[in-house]
């Protein structure tokens, strides 16, 4: 049982690293979207004809 639990822990660590990369990419994408939305809102609020 010790062998299977240690191998499961090793697999869990590798999955954790992969998920952290995916999470980082997701957060970067959301940050970019929020920036664009914020710029559009400011442009609409400051619109003068």
Set down the secondary structure blueprint.
Blueprint: H1 2-45
Keywords: Cell membrane, Developmental protein, Membrane, Transmembrane, Transmembrane helix
Subcellular location: Cell membrane
Main location: membrane
Description:
By secondary structure, the protein is mostly helical. The chain has one domain (1-49). It is built from one helix and no strands. Belongs to the DVL/RTFL small polypeptides family. Pfam families: DVL. It is a single-pass membrane protein.
Question: How far is the N terminus from the C terminus?
Answer: 74 Å
Cα-based radius of gyration, to the nearest Å: 21 Å
Helix content: over 70%
Count of distinct strands:
0
Could you tell me the strand content as a percent range? Answer: under 5%
Provide the number of structural domains: 1
3D shape: rod-shaped
- Taken in chain order, the helices and strands follow as H
| DSSP helical segment count | 1
Query: Residue ranges: pLDDT <50 for 5 or more in a row?
Result: none
On the 0-100 scale, what is the average pLDDT? 76
Structure classification: mainly alpha
Main beta-sheet strand count, sense and barrel state = none
Descriptive keywords:
49 residues; mainly alpha; 1 helix; membrane; DVL/RTFL_small_peptides
Write a brief caption for the model.
The protein has 49 residues and is mainly α. It is 90% helix and 0% strand.
């Amino acid at each position: 049982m010790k062998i299977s639990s240690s191998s499961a822990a090793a697999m869990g660590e590798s999955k954790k690293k992969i998920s952290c990369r995916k999470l980082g990419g997701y957060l970067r994408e959301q940050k970019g979207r929020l920036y664009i939305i914020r710029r559009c809102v400011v442009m609409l609020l400051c619109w003068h004809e």
